[in-house]
Structures are given as structure tokens and as C-alpha cells.
Design goal:
The chain is mostly beta strands and about 270 residues long. It has 2 helices and 16 strands. The protein has helices spanning about 15-25, 80-85; strands at about 35-45, 55-60, 70-75, 105-110, 115-120, 130-140, 150-155, 155-165, 170, 175-185, 200-210, 210-215, 220, 225-230, 235-245, 255-265. The chain has a 5-stranded mixed β-sheet with strand order 9-16-15-11-12, with no helix packed on it. It starts with 12 loop residues before the first helix and ends with a strand.
Length: about 270
């Protein structure tokens, strides 16, 4: 049987050009576009958390794969008190001003990414540190730096037990318990102040052998953010004091703790 030979394909110059373009595109990777991201962390009921509190650790990762994209720390001031705390906030109200604490980075993105931004802090008061994360889509070349950028609210109070030092050995008798309490940005708490001590609850829960034995309020001690009380343990033993600050209007809460040992008086 006679077989007909195949005729060579005939392509127009346009077809050849398109084929070459497809091959070229397949061989060349997509160009990454620099995309700026600003992250700010604001204390619940207060101001930005910045350098004065050691800043907040920021991690940016791909929310779907976990790939780490950027890390850093917020730095700068707590911001403008009047703008944040006194002026009416009509959305979309921008709270940040020049110099307010921020972490800025530039991601090289080849395609849209679903990112997870995690904030941990304040770093200067690790016992008070909380962690908050948010997710957001970002598109190559579409900066997220307008207004406040990505704004994260950090709950909590910074509670720092000053006395007695942990693991203290104390004689029987009254024990003075003192704590420093501020907002997460370090903003001071005073009676009648912008952050009103009279509207917050500061108290200590005492435990012995893991059992709660007393809850005692701490009183304002006459200096900004200082609270104290004297309490007499009922008997010798090892005690744990858990000091909390609580805002009834929002549920915002912070905690620190200390342990101490009460010894019997020598005869």
C-alpha cells in the first residue's frame, strides 16, 4: 500500500512569534514586586507599644504554608495622646502620627499572599506579654502602609510585683505586697487620671498548697502606677500571691505573681 508522506506544517509568521513568546514566558520566572507592609500595635484602651516598653516582636508568615516572610520589632513613641485618647474617632480615623511606633518591612511578592501577622509583647515586660495574630491578603506592589497600616490591638495590663521578691523567706507577721501596674504601652495609672486608678480593680489572690485562702484589694500607694497592701498570712508555710489588674468596663486583665515562704518565729 502506498503511504502518503506527511506535508510539513505551515505556520504563519504570527503563529511562530506566538509560539516563541510562550516558550520564553515559560522559561522566565515571574518578577517579584516590592510591597511595603507597616505594622502597628496599640494597647487596649491606651496608646502604641514602642521603644519605651521594648517594643513588640512582629512575625509575618504565609498563613497557608507557614513560610517565614519577615520578622522585626516595633520601635518609636507611644504616639499623640490627644489624637488617640481625646479626639473623637470617626472611621476611618488614623491614630498614628509621625514617630509613632511601627514595624516596617518590604516583601518581594510574585503573587498574592495570604499572610499571618503575629505580635508578641511588650518585650521589656515578659511576664505581661500577650500574643495576638491577624491574617490579611496582600497583592504584589499594593503597599499596606496607608493610615495605620496593619493595626493590632494588644489586650492586657503590665503588672509587675515589686515586693516581696519571689522565693523570699519572711518572718511571721504582716507581709507588704507591692506592684507596679501600667497600661501595655507603659502609660501611667493614677486616681482621676486619663487612665483612672479608681476605675480599675487591682487585687491579690493568695494561695497556700494550691488552695485559695484570701483575696485582698491593693490600694493606690501615692505614686503613679504603684499599688500596695499589707496582709498577714494565717500560719507559716509557702504562699503564692497572684496580683491582677482588671477593667470592669472592658474585661481587660493583666496578671503577675510571686511566691514567698513564711517561717515560724524563733522562740
Amino acid at each position: 500500500m502506498h503511504r502518503r508522506s506527511k506535508k510539513p506544517s505551515r505556520r504563519t509568521p504570527f503563529a511562530w512569534a506566538m509560539a516563541l513568546a510562550l516558550i520564553t514566558c515559560a522559561a522566565v520566572p515571574a518578577f517579584a514586586e516590592p510591597t511595603r507592609i507597616d505594622v502597628r500595635v496599640i494597647a487596649q484602651g491606651a496608646k502604641f507599644i514602642g521603644t519605651s516598653m521594648g517594643g513588640v516582636s512582629i512575625t509575618i508568615a504565609d498563613a497557608d504554608t507557614g513560610e517565614l516572610l519577615a520578622t522585626g520589632t516595633t520601635s518609636g513613641s507611644t504616639g499623640d495622646t490627644a489624637r488617640i485618647m481625646k479626639e473623637s474617632h470617626v472611621r476611618p480615623r488614623v491614630l498614628s502620627t509621625e514617630g509613632a511606633a511601627v514595624f516596617s518591612t518590604t516583601l518581594d511578592l510574585e503573587r498574592p499572599r495570604h499572610i499571618r501577622v503575629t505580635a508578641l509583647g511588650p518585650l521589656a515586660q515578659r511576664q505581661a506579654a500577650n500574643e495576638v495574630s491577624v491574617t490579611q491578603w496582600v497583592v504584589p506592589g499594593k503597599d499596606v502602609d496607608g493610615g495605620d497600616g496593619i493595626l493590632i490591638e494588644m489586650p492586657g495590663f503590665v503588672v509587675d510585683v515589686l515586693a516581696p521578691p519571689s522565693h523570699s523567706d519572711l518572718e511571721e507577721g504582716p507581709v507588704r505586697l507591692a506592684a507596679n501596674v501600667t497600661m501595655m504601652c507603659g502609660c501611667p495609672i493614677t486616681p482621676g487620671g486619663l487612665w483612672d486608678a479608681d476605675k480599675f480593680e487591682v487585687a491579690a489572690i493568695f494561695y497556700r498548697d494550691g488552695k485559695e485562702i484570701a483575696t485582698v484589694p491593693l490600694a493606690y500607694a501615692g505614686t503613679a502606677s504603684q499599688f500596695a497592701v499589707e496582709w498577714t498570712p494565717p500560719e507559716p508555710g509557702t504562699y503564692e500571691a497572684l496580683v491582677y489588674a482588671y477593667d470592669p468596663s472592658s474585661g481587660n486583665t493583666g496578671i503577675d505573681q510571686a511566691t514567698f515562704v513564711v517561717k515560724s518565729r524563733k522562740p
